[in-house]
């Protein structure tokens, strides 16, 4: 989290000094949907237990609100706050949790699957560099980050023990699912928020001088919570698409 705070502070200070001499161009507002998938990167404590990262996924509905400062014709800098709802999935584990049945006997290998699902409030800072191509077309490149505050979620675990040719499947596989409240997340995980950083690439198609549709791509890194007792956790790297509407001046 210290890295996230330092990163955002550096961006904010840079943007303040950079735009102080620019003529204000106008208020900017974006509403968009985004979603993507990626991989979980286990931390050292997880790797020491043989746990490997699996899939991650995220989806969000967000608004970006701020101001675009015109630097020169065809180029502007936006300073945007970002807030919205985010749904995130992280999965990791080891071995194989499947159970096979042949001729009335059961076999399995030792395995563990862990799944974490969070419903979060998202709050961040996303400065953008806007490039106008003339007419109806524009491009924006954003670099920013912030925090996702999980308000609720679920944790699921599936584990199997190693057996070969037993006549009953009782006790071979154990499945648990726990519903997490905000207080549970505070009690079980540290930190209890998800830090994130991302780079965005948006193409704007303008219908008028101030209204456009945006089609975009993002690359994101999540710094997910770790279990307090075991210190087990994993970050995530995602790539995804975003689609939305923008109200604000052209660069």
Question: What this model shows, in words?
Answer:
- The chain has helices spanning 2-19, 44-48, 182-188; strands at 23-42, 52-72, 75-95, 99-102, 105-108, 111-125, 128-132, 137-160, 163-166, 173-181, 189-190, 194-206, 211-223, 226-227, 234-247.
- The longest helix has 18 residues, at 2-19.
- The chain has one domain (2-16, 28-215, 224-247).
- The protein is built from 3 helices and 15 strands.
- The protein is mainly β.
- This is PorT family protein.
- Keywords: Signal.
- Residues 1-23 form the signal peptide.
Q: How would you concisely characterize the structure shown here?
A:
This protein has about 250 residues and is mainly beta. It is built from 3 helices and 15 strands.
Let me know the largest β-sheet.
10 strands, antiparallel
Please count the helical segments: 3
Tally of domains: 1
Choose one word for the global shape.
Answer: elongated
Mean pLDDT: 91
Keywords: Signal
Organism: Brachyspira aalborgi
Protein name: PorT family protein
